[in-house]
Backbone:
């Protein structure tokens, strides 16, 4: 049984509008630099511990990848690290940038 939930882009957008969420983008550096969700933090093995230590584990965390597949494993990992409300973004950044281009940074 997974300890995370999947979230549709529209629901993620609502959380982001309310400024109640952190977004962990697990894509590679070049993809992140080419574009990412506003306020997203790129997380990899180099800064994972620092990211976990800096987060309020009681606030929602959305994990974003390319298409919403890799983020599921990462979301499960974050849930196992004590995050109480973890989501994997359905469709990933590729769906997000089409749905909400004004909420992307380049």
Residues:
């Amino acid at each position: 049984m997974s300890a995370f939930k999947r979230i549709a882009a529209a629901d993620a957008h609502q959380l982001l509008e309310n400024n109640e969420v952190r977004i962990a983008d697990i894509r590679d550096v070049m993809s992140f630099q080419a574009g990412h969700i506003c306020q997203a933090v790129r997380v990899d093995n180099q800064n994972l511990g620092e990211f976990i230590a800096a987060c309020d584990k009681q606030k929602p965390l959305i994990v974003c990848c390319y298409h919403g597949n890799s983020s599921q494993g990462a979301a499960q990992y974050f849930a196992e690290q004590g995050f109480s409300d973890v989501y994997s973004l359905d469709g990933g950044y590729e769906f997000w940038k089409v749905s909400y281009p004004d909420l992307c940074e380049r």
Q: What stands out?
A: The mean pLDDT is 95. Residues 5-105 form a domain with the Oxidized Rhodanese; domain 1 fold (CATH 3.40.250.10). The first helix runs from residue 9 to 17.
